[in-house]
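Chapter summary example.
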Amino acid sequence: MGGTGGGGRNLRRDELRALEQAARASLREAAQPKRRNLFISFVEEDLAEVNLLRGQAKNEDSNLEFNDWSLRKPFDSEDAEYIKRGIREHIRQSSVTVVYVTENTTKSKWVDWEIRESIKLGKAVIAMYKGERPPHNLPSAITELKISLVPWSHEAISTAIERAAK
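The structure predicted for these 166 residues follows.
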């Protein structure tokens, strides 16, 4: 009586070791944060700070990782519909829109539209700010749509992106 159940063959030591290594690698990979596709919405006056964020995400010591699908330079056009089509395509390729808000943000004619368009396309949106508290004037879409505001810290941004992407 008794028996091993299953009726399978016994694994050799090297096969067992290979399975253990594969399982460990799989667990390590699952524990790593996924690299998300982001669209960063911001006003042109804040480009230097947004470039700093982009650079921090490339730093090997940072837990902030993302693929940046935002615009590198403004569309060279006066045709608003052409610009909207181009921006919309960048938003479509993203899973989360991150809005960088400063005192300058409400000056933008595009940030509010990008927030609303992101929501319309089914994308998650978070807003981040630098400093101790968010600026007083925010794009109306942030307050109307109750967009989450997070401080500029790698941990807070990473956590917000992961929550938003699910």
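To summarize the output: The first strand starts at residue 36 and ends at 41.
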